[in-house]
Amino acid sequence: MDVSELARFRRMLETRREELVALSEAAADKRKPVELDQQSIGRLSRQDALQQQAMAKAQEARRAGELRKIAAALSRIDDGEFGYCAECGEAIAEKRLEIDPTTVRCLACAA
Fold it and tell me: Which end of the chain is more exposed for a tag (fewer CB within 10 A), N or C?
Protein backbone atom coordinates (compact mmCIF):
# COMPACT_ATOMS: atom_id res chain seq x y z
CA MET A 1 0.00 0.00 0.00
CA ASP A 2 1.48 3.33 -0.99
CA VAL A 3 1.83 6.47 1.10
CA SER A 4 -1.18 8.26 -0.41
CA GLU A 5 -3.48 5.31 0.33
CA LEU A 6 -2.22 5.14 3.91
CA ALA A 7 -2.82 8.88 4.27
CA ARG A 8 -6.36 8.45 2.96
CA PHE A 9 -7.09 5.68 5.46
CA ARG A 10 -5.53 7.76 8.25
CA ARG A 11 -7.88 10.66 7.37
CA MET A 12 -10.86 8.29 7.34
CA LEU A 13 -9.95 6.94 10.76
CA GLU A 14 -9.24 10.36 12.26
CA THR A 15 -12.49 11.76 10.89
CA ARG A 16 -14.46 8.87 12.38
CA ARG A 17 -12.64 9.30 15.70
CA GLU A 18 -13.60 12.99 15.78
CA GLU A 19 -17.23 12.10 15.01
CA LEU A 20 -17.31 9.55 17.83
CA VAL A 21 -15.79 11.97 20.34
CA ALA A 22 -18.32 14.64 19.35
CA LEU A 23 -21.21 12.17 19.71
CA SER A 24 -19.91 11.09 23.09
CA GLU A 25 -19.68 14.66 24.33
CA ALA A 26 -23.16 15.48 23.02
CA ALA A 27 -24.68 12.47 24.79
CA ALA A 28 -22.97 13.02 28.14
CA ASP A 29 -26.18 14.33 29.73
CA LYS A 30 -28.07 11.17 28.84
CA ARG A 31 -25.60 9.04 30.80
CA LYS A 32 -25.91 11.04 34.01
CA PRO A 33 -27.62 9.42 36.99
CA VAL A 34 -31.41 9.63 36.94
CA GLU A 35 -32.84 11.64 39.76
CA LEU A 36 -35.36 9.67 41.79
CA ASP A 37 -37.50 12.57 42.98
CA GLN A 38 -41.05 11.22 43.40
CA GLN A 39 -42.51 14.71 43.30
CA SER A 40 -41.20 15.75 39.87
CA ILE A 41 -41.30 12.47 37.94
CA GLY A 42 -43.89 9.71 37.95
CA ARG A 43 -42.96 6.04 38.23
CA LEU A 44 -43.32 5.33 34.49
CA SER A 45 -41.41 8.45 33.51
CA ARG A 46 -38.61 7.45 35.87
CA GLN A 47 -38.49 3.94 34.37
CA ASP A 48 -38.34 5.46 30.90
CA ALA A 49 -35.51 7.75 32.01
CA LEU A 50 -33.62 4.77 33.47
CA GLN A 51 -34.07 2.82 30.25
CA GLN A 52 -32.81 5.77 28.18
CA GLN A 53 -29.82 6.10 30.51
CA ALA A 54 -29.02 2.39 30.10
CA MET A 55 -29.25 2.68 26.32
CA ALA A 56 -27.00 5.75 26.35
CA LYS A 57 -24.43 3.88 28.45
CA ALA A 58 -24.52 0.89 26.09
CA GLN A 59 -24.08 3.19 23.10
CA GLU A 60 -21.13 4.85 24.83
CA ALA A 61 -19.56 1.44 25.42
CA ARG A 62 -19.89 0.67 21.68
CA ARG A 63 -18.32 4.03 20.84
CA ALA A 64 -15.44 3.34 23.25
CA GLY A 65 -14.86 -0.03 21.58
CA GLU A 66 -14.80 1.56 18.16
CA LEU A 67 -12.40 4.24 19.42
CA ARG A 68 -10.05 1.49 20.66
CA LYS A 69 -10.19 -0.20 17.25
CA ILE A 70 -9.44 3.13 15.55
CA ALA A 71 -6.47 3.75 17.84
CA ALA A 72 -5.15 0.27 17.05
CA ALA A 73 -5.57 0.86 13.30
CA LEU A 74 -3.73 4.19 13.52
CA SER A 75 -0.97 2.43 15.44
CA ARG A 76 -0.73 -0.19 12.68
CA ILE A 77 -0.37 2.62 10.13
CA ASP A 78 2.47 4.10 12.17
CA ASP A 79 4.13 0.68 12.50
CA GLY A 80 3.80 -0.14 8.81
CA GLU A 81 1.50 -3.09 9.50
CA PHE A 82 -1.76 -1.58 8.27
CA GLY A 83 -3.52 -3.50 5.54
CA TYR A 84 -2.00 -6.89 6.39
CA CYS A 85 -3.87 -9.78 7.97
CA ALA A 86 -3.00 -10.41 11.61
CA GLU A 87 -3.35 -14.17 11.11
CA CYS A 88 -1.81 -15.04 7.74
CA GLY A 89 0.12 -11.86 6.93
CA GLU A 90 -1.43 -11.47 3.49
CA ALA A 91 -2.69 -8.12 2.26
CA ILE A 92 -6.28 -7.27 3.15
CA ALA A 93 -8.36 -6.27 0.11
CA GLU A 94 -8.62 -2.50 -0.22
CA LYS A 95 -12.40 -2.69 -0.63
CA ARG A 96 -12.62 -4.53 2.71
CA LEU A 97 -10.53 -1.80 4.34
CA GLU A 98 -12.71 0.90 2.81
CA ILE A 99 -15.78 -0.69 4.42
CA ASP A 100 -14.04 -1.10 7.78
CA PRO A 101 -10.53 0.36 8.02
CA THR A 102 -10.17 -1.11 11.52
CA THR A 103 -10.37 -4.70 10.29
CA VAL A 104 -7.38 -6.90 11.14
CA ARG A 105 -8.17 -10.04 9.13
CA CYS A 106 -8.43 -10.80 5.44
CA LEU A 107 -11.67 -12.27 4.17
CA ALA A 108 -10.35 -15.84 4.19
CA CYS A 109 -9.16 -15.67 7.81
CA ALA A 110 -12.29 -13.84 8.97
CA ALA A 111 -14.44 -16.67 7.63
Answer: C
Domain boundaries, the chain: 3-80
Q: How far apart are CA 85 and CA 73, in angstroms?
A: 12
Q: Is 84 helix (H, G, I), strand (E, B) or coil?
A: strand
What b/e sequence results for 76-109 when a residue is b if at least 16 CB atoms lie within 10 Å of its CB, and e otherwise? bbeeeebbbbeeeeeebeeeebeeebbbbebeee
Cβ(108)–Cβ(48) below 8 Å: no
77: Cα separation from own chain's centroid: 17
Q: What would the pLDDT profile of 1-34 be if each residue is shown by its tens digit?
A: 889 999 999 999 999 999 999 999 888 777 777 6
